[in-house]
Write a structure and sequence with these properties.
single chain; alpha+beta; 7-stranded mixed sheet; 6-stranded antiparallel sheet; 39 strands; 26% helix
Amino acid sequence: MENTSGYRKTDQTVKASNHSNIGLLAHVDAGKTTLSESILYLAGKLKQLGRVDHKDVYLDTHELEKARGITIFSKQAVFQAGDRNITLLDTPGHVDFSAETERTLAVLDCAVLVISGADGVQGHTRTLWRLLQEYRIPVFLFVNKMDQQGTDRDELLRDLKDSLDEKCVDFSAQDEEAWAENVAVCSEEALDEYVECGRAGLETIRGMIQERHLFPCYFGSALKMDGVETLLEGLTNYAPICSYPEKFAARVFKITRDPQGNRLTHLKVTGGKLRVKMPVTYKEAAAAAGRGAEGQSLDGKILEEKVNQIRIYSGAKFETVTEAEAGIVCAVTGLSKTYAGQGLGGESEDIQAHMVPVMRYRVELPPDSDVQESYQKLKMLEEEDPQLHLSWNSQTGELHVQLMGEVQTEIWKTLAKERCGLDISFGDGSVVYRETIAQAVEGIGHFEPLRHYAEVHLLMEPGEPGSGIVLSAKCSEDMLSPHWQKLILSHLAEREHPGILTGSPITDLQITLIGGRAHEKHTEGGDFREATYRAVRQGLKKAKNILLEPWYDFCLEVPRDQIGRAMSDIQKRGGKLDPPEDRDGQAVLTGRVPAASVGDYYREVLAYTRGTGKFTVTFGEYGLCHNTEEVIEQIGYDWERDAKNPTGSVFCAGGAGFYVPWDKVEEYMHVSCGTRKEGTEEAE
């Protein structure tokens, strides 16, 4: 994946005004919010320190955050440190709000990953590390809570090197010579400078950090202000200095609304300048999940809207400015259809999220509520969190939403009441399954009732795990005009296509338009929608289909004498175990387990270990379902009775349309392997 942090190497660039966007990330309870308070206090932004337990921290401004003592929404604060202008972005640590954290990564120049010295590298820490790696963001590490009994600096540094990267180097060490030597072995250039001068130079170290060849580590206690000043000095000296192109570009990372209901587009300017009343041209979001082979959007009309106001936020307050130069993170009003992950101007590609909800819940509305009206109100919340995937089934009249877990359901209840005036509850959660195929097939769809005509041929191939649906076209313009080809790709992108095993959305597919045909007089846009959908379904019927389920990465800590019980429990749930480890007298098990098998196992662990055990999970990836036949039977999806998603096609003879089942379509099709069938009336 390309570096999406905003840094660009170009021939013609202008240096940003020493502005750095630094994110704070952590596993929940690592002390990230306390660290943010300490940094802001030392930088002179705060006159006195707030505390989470006192409910007065600077960046946790929402009542929900104060009540629960956790960060739920990413917030920012702007301050000066030395000659640096810094925007500090605090992100949620709880796994249920990982999507909010990931959205913020798109605008970071570097990150501080906070790790609890009492717990070391935990499951969610590894997930965050993988995300930072995917986005190619330079990382500083702060090991917090070193004032707690039993913490060992050398042992924790070994844990960082073993669990994260061997190029983690202690930057708060007192031994200058050992530090210089440890830095030198991380790159050849640094080693040359070390041999010649006794240490690598500032610019070399900064470049190594920027290229992720070096990860500075700091140790201390945020609560006692120990080591925080050293960290801040390190950020001031070593945080990357980014350069940007002169042409306007921006990356959207969040949509919110202020207390007055104004829609805010939060973005980072990644090129040129953004000015008040400046027109911004962008593409409206596609309705569903398809993307082009290069990641570009395939659907949505072009909009041009003016920026009415530019706000620079610090905590709950903001100041308005007339322009924002490259490198600045700001919020703007006036843009009505922007969405998280969107690129504006020179940022032509959108960013696809890695963190996705794996649980689906039925939204239970008050008895007197109008379902459709409530659906429209709740869509506003989905705009702010696009991973919710709010859906309304018109046949059953039910609303469904996808969420990360139980904590997020409680937050969503409160937000629905506060923002939409709806007192909702949730039914039992169920796992979100997906489907893919095992081999390449050609899917054919034909739609030809009287005075209509369209035929579509799609090559459907297995994609890389986690790649989603990647769309492209390799069809001659002599066969099908570019206008129709673009329309077909748009129809592929505009919705999630159900699989044939359980009706779950298909994923991890490369779909290529390889052929098709239109009629000069009778083809309308809707004809290609019908033909395209049928081509996908016909291809799925010909393929070997695979059911995928979400897998969690887990960490299970139990007393040594309970390890047998713990291993047996994981195996019964279809999990896969890594070799057990020993940590401070506790047996530690890690591995992968199907999300559907987890349930409330954490409560069971607390019970049989009498409160001394700990079970944590984080989303890993979608993988092969461990009990496919059981799930298929339980869901009971019947592809033949799914009238909205037919697998067959409609042909015409004698002035009337007739239905052809999926396994007979090849006998009637009008295009074959990019060539029209010879000897048919239609070819003539």
